[in-house]
């Protein structure tokens, strides 16, 4: 069957233009809300079945950290309160040392926090929100096979094995890190693309409640930094924690039996064994193979006035800044701002979106990769505590001059590439400050040695008596 939803009338308004959103994940579902709100006819195509009907959901990670950028994007379509009310605030990180000591480090000032949100619930809420617009249609079990850059026709494979060809005025590729929409971009001249798998994999484990209560303090992002190995735990509404273990694939291969799992945890995360439960640990560790993590960068994000990439399809980032979804949500917000500025003229909006957004998405991809390298090379709990302490202290002393990088990234909408620039500038200022101090000490000592002041030649005892005299009130 062939369906042509597109309009050939160039003067047609958003009212009768069709936008095809490919991918009904987090970014696709949010994008559907944005385009529907503007008055477009929206067709969402998602390869999976409707997750709102499915009994078991196969997610990548059960929860995610939602921060300012993501919240601002949700707010614009009236979804912030719904999502925030089901999120668990995390005001601080809780650093777990090898000896079991727990040290909290606040994320920011009082009242500044990030939220642990359930991925499946977030996706469901956004799909339902998109569906409240009468102009939106959700097409599940529609897998995009290919599309034509000449005609814009998309070919979908349906659950029953039949194929369907569909056209639209605009194709929005939100089909994730392994985007099928992006395949056609790769065939274009002057399209840049890079993809890097990191040597680490991740595994998710559930920490159940104890006596109906959270097994650890709930309003924290729990972190076990162990150089090459790292674990992170975020709280869920059902009083469980989802723990994510990061380690090199080589190391995963070295742990093949239940006893080896316990031995490994005994060595690196001993405090978690009783909390997860030794038996559950032995079982859950092997439930799924370790998952890979990929970083994808490309540019441009658009192809003529026909197609645009957003979310992981445009920029998959490694999860070491908690920004993948937040950046994808901000993509939707930025696109919407440009639609306002340029009167929904796709031939102007798409290139402008690429111009504005590529430097920022590339910056967060680089930052996340940088943090991955830093964490795995030398970040143990002491180093982590020290670094955050220095960051926070400098910010306290010079609140306008020194703003920690994670603060700009997590709690502001400072453009990612501006945040990086500012960070480099701050580093220079701090280093020059330290250099000044060091230079004064060295220079001062030299001058003291070279030109010793004329001091009366008195004994230590005499000096002590005089000092005592200074202290006395009379
Ligand atoms: P996806 O969520 O991958 O959705 C893509 C959708 O497209 C899917 O529904 C898929 O079924 C569909 N699809 C795929 N191919 C086709 C096709 N051919 N036809 C039709 N549909 C198709 N981000 C944060 O902000 N905070 C965090 O704390 C955080 N933690 C993370 C932890 C881990 C371990 C990982 C791996 C990622 C984390 N992220 C986090 C990143 C976040 O998960 C992603 O950035 C986000 O899911 C991207 O959303 P998306 O909609 O672009 O892609
Ligand atoms: C990784 C996996 C602590 C969820 C980066 C911090 C993450 C998250 C940090 C995952 C870390 C690392 C930051 C936030 C967040 C920290 C951040 C990482 C959520 C620099 C579900 N990271 N993450 N940085 O500052 O800015 O606390 O799986 F361990 S939230 Cl790797 Cl703010």
Automatic annotation (TrEMBL):
| GO CC field | mitochondrial outer membrane
> What processes does the entry annotate via GO biological process terms?
'de novo' NAD+ biosynthetic process from L-tryptophan; anthranilate metabolic process; kynurenine metabolic process; L-tryptophan catabolic process; quinolinate biosynthetic process
The UniProt record lists the FAD-binding domain at 19-333
Q: Which reaction does it catalyse?
A: L-kynurenine + NADPH + O2 + H(+) = 3-hydroxy-L-kynurenine + NADP(+) + H2O
Q: Which cofactor does it need?
A: FAD
Q: Which InterPro entries match?
A: FAD-bd, FAD/NAD-bd_sf, Kynurenine_monooxygenase
Q: What does this protein do?
A: Catalyzes the hydroxylation of L-kynurenine (L-Kyn) to form 3-hydroxy-L-kynurenine (L-3OHKyn). Required for synthesis of quinolinic acid, a neurotoxic NMDA receptor antagonist and potential endogenous inhibitor of NMDA receptor signaling in axonal targeting, synaptogenesis and apoptosis during brain development. Quinolinic acid may also affect NMDA receptor signaling in pancreatic beta cells, osteoblasts, myocardial cells, and the gastrointestinal tract.
Recorded protein name is Kynurenine 3-monooxygenase
